[in-house]
Design brief:
mainly beta, Methylamine Dehydrogenase, Chain H, five-stranded mixed sheet, four-stranded antiparallel sheet, 32 strands, about 5% helix, globular
């Protein structure tokens, strides 16, 4: 009998060989370990979801397990990462130690400032991606994600244990942010601005510390299920997932508020879908459910001092509380774009990023906003200030540097700019 040739196997091998040659021509280096990310010269132009500063190094993460770092003004380099999962969040409590999280409930750790990463946790079968991570110090950290997923470690990531913010809720937890116990003096003490007796303060913390496309295009807004209902992400529907983070500007040692209590426990916030925000005043042992006047999803939270905090998300909604979430007021943004991240600027203002290349400049008093839009109109997912009025943004179109003086002319950001 004539032996049949394994045509399908031969054809599959041919495709693998051809695709391998094509990838090689594009400069892509395929790792010998199938679990490791490929090295791609175009990684800086790929989908990136989070960016951090750790001393004089910048680190960003995104699709296909890409982790990139840059030392000072040098070129971007790709780190060694043991995953090809989409990475969504970053946290560096100090210059050398950092954590990244992502899909498949993956948690990675580095002890050399972001060059080499090792796997600390993974739970593919649970099908609950992690969306953000925050470490208060080298030992204590939180990772949050879909359907109320909350993991906590007290031993530097060696072991992780499940917790719950509310046993009756299974909403997606999109972003986590902590206000450190030591606070800087308020902006009003330096610039004269105030907010009705609640001056803005910038938190003290380690440099780079966080305070925390599957729908036609790749953005940080990652859909897990179809939205439905009039709320489009409200409590009567099951919205998709987004994650974002926010970073307070570090303050100088001389600016530490004398009223800060040594050893005080930092206050932590979580932004969630369906209009919920959660707050912990005891290091994450218990959580209080906050209820801003909005039923849509929040994708970011940015604490400014122990009592002042902003939350933001779908359709350009931005809310501010000056009593740790007891009461909220809406801030008009002038945009319907989903807002994805917030940072404190050295000038005392705040910068928010969003879909369609949206940049939102918010005054220190949190009342006046001004909107700009990058010409490419690609979704932005995160940002970090690299120099006065210059920010590094990441998102759907990779890494870009933005000059805020050019984006917001006439705002007295740069007195010597033309």
């Amino acid at each position: 009998m004539k032996r049949k040739r394994p045509v399908r196997g031969i054809f599959a091998a041919f495709l693998i060989l051809v695709s391998g040659h094509a990838l090689a021509r594009e400069g892509i280096q395929i790792s010998e370990n199938p679990a490791h990310a490929w090295r791609s010269p175009l990684a800086t132009q790929s989908l990136l979801l989070a960016v951090e500063k750790s001393q004089d190094r910048w680190i960003t993460v995104g699709e296909r397990g890409h982790i990139l770092y840059r030392q000072g003004d040098g070129p971007w380099q790709q780190a060694t990462a043991p995953t090809r999962a989409l990475l969504t969040g970053l946290s560096f409590p100090n210059a050398r130690h950092g954590w990244a999280v992502g899909h498949d409930a993956i948690i990675l750790a580095t002890s050399d400032g972001g060059r080499i990463w090792r796997k600390m946790h993974q739970a593919i079968d649970e099908q609950r991606p992690l969306l953000d991570v925050h470490f208060q110090n080298n030992n204590t950290g939180f990772a949050i994600g879909a359907y109320g997923y909350l993991l906590r470690t007290e031993d530097g990531g060696a072991s992780w244990h499940s917790h719950s913010v509310n046993p009756d809720h299974d909403f997606h937890l999109n972003a986590i942010a902590t206000i450190p116990a030591g606070l800087c003096k308020s902006v009003s003490e330096n610039s004269g601005s105030s907010r009705g007796g609640s001056p803005i303060a910038v938190p003290q913390g380690a440099e780079g510390e966080k305070s925390g496309s599957v729908a036609g295009y790749m953005t940080r807004f990652i859909t897990l299920s179809q939205r439905s209902g009039p709320q489009f992400g409200g409590r009567r529907s099951r919205p998709g997932i987004s994650q974002t983070r926010s970073k307070p500007a570090p303050c100088k040692e001389a600016e530490i508020n004398e009223t800060a209590v040594p050893g005080a426990v930092p206050r932590t916030y979580i932004a969630a879908e369906a209009g919920y925000v959660y707050r912990s005043d005891d290091g994450g042992n218990s959580w209080q459910t906050l209820d801003p006047p909005y039923d849509g999803s929040f994708f970011g939270v940015h604490p400014m001092d122990r009592d002042s905090v902003m939350v933001f998300g779908l359709r350009g909604h931005l809310f501010v509380s000056e009593d740790a979430g007891g009461h909220w007021r809406s801030v008009e943004t002038g945009t319907q774009a989903t807002l994805t991240s917030a940072i404190s600027l050295a000038s005392g203002r705040f910068l928010l990023t969003g879909h369609a290349g949206t940049l939102l400049l918010v005054d220190a008093d949190l009342h006046r906003t001004r909107r700009a839009q990058l010409p490419e109109r690609k979704a932005l997912s995160d940002a970090v200030e690299i120099a006065p009025n210059r920010v590094l943004v990441v998102g759907e179109n990779g890494i870009h540097t933005v000059d805020l003086c050019q984006m917001f002319p006439g705002e007295a950001l740069c007195p010597y700019a033309e």
